[in-house]
Each structure stands twice: as structure tokens, then as C-alpha cells.
Amino acid sequence: MLYMLMGYVVLLVGFFCLGQQAFTQNSELLLPMLVPLVLILWPLFNTYYQIRAEKPIYRPGYVHGEIDINSIREIIKGKTMWIRFKPSLATGGLIIKFNRFNEIYLAPKNNEELIADLPKLNGSINIIN
After folding, report:
1. Distance of alpha carbon 80 from alpha carbon 91, whole angstroms
2. H or E segment at 119?
3. Who has the most CB within 10 Å: 33, 40, 53, 105?
């Protein structure tokens, strides 16, 4: 994500340097170029995970949802999921298996805190290291 952001900023500066006069005269040309920048920065600064009302809530940028705590079957710690629903870009997070076949990959700042809190709410969660 950071490399994509840096590449986009370099591209934006390059366009600005090549056509500086066009951008200074028509500042509305800059708006369509800033929209992708906002879409890149939004998940970087607005990602969080919470346990609210006995439901884990995930919100990485513009994706959000919640999981019923009683439907969580298993948590795999320290692995990275490369396919399926992955609302996190970090590696070494948690794979949470819930319902019958659903999986989600979350990467909180501290895996241990989330792992310590979830079994308190649902004692039947199987933790795999």
C-alpha cells in the first residue's frame, strides 16, 4: 500500500511538473487526480478492530462488518491468508473461522489482546498457534 501511495505521488508530481501552467490556470484538473489518493489514504488512517456488544467489529477504511461471537469456531494465529476475504493488508495476523465455511483475515496491532478477549466471550473458540 505504501509503495502504491509513493508511486502515485511521484506520478502526480511528474504530471504537475510537465504541465505546471495547465494546473495553475485550471485548478479543477487536480481534483480527479486527488480522488485516488484519498481512496489510498483512507484505509491507512481509518482501520480499526473492536469488540462491541459481544461482536467483533472490523473497519479497514471503506469495508466494514461484524461477526457474531457465538459463530466463531477457530482462530489461527500468526498466519497470513492470501485468498478469500482479507480486509487487512498486514501479514502475521489472525484467520478467524466462523459459521460453517466463512473465514476472515484480520491484523490488529496486538494479536494477543484480541485472542485473550474473544475466548472470554465464547469459551468454545479453538485457538491454533
Report:
1. 5
2. helix 111-121
3. 105
User: Per residue in 28-80, pLDDT tens?
Assistant: 767 777 788 787 778 777 777 777 777 778 887 777 888 888 888 999 988 77
Residues 47, 90: Cα–Cα separation, whole Å = 12
CA dihedral 71, 75, 80, 84 (to 10 degrees): -20
How many residues belong to the chain? 129
Given a contact cutoff of 8 angstroms between Cβ atoms, the answer to whether 88 and 105 are in contact is: yes
SS (H, E, C) 10-79: HHHHHHHHHCHHHHHHCHHHCHHHHHHHHHHHHHHHCEEEEEECCEEEEEECCCCEECCHHHEEEEEEEE
The whole-model pTM stands at 0.66
Q: What value, to the nearest 5°, has the Cα angle with vertex 97 and ends 41 and 122?
A: 105
Q: Which amino acid is at 56?
A: P
Is residue 103 classed as helix, strand or coil in its secondary structure?
Answer: strand
Amino acid (one-letter) located at 10 = V
Side-chain half-sphere exposure of 104, counting CA atoms within 13 A: 22
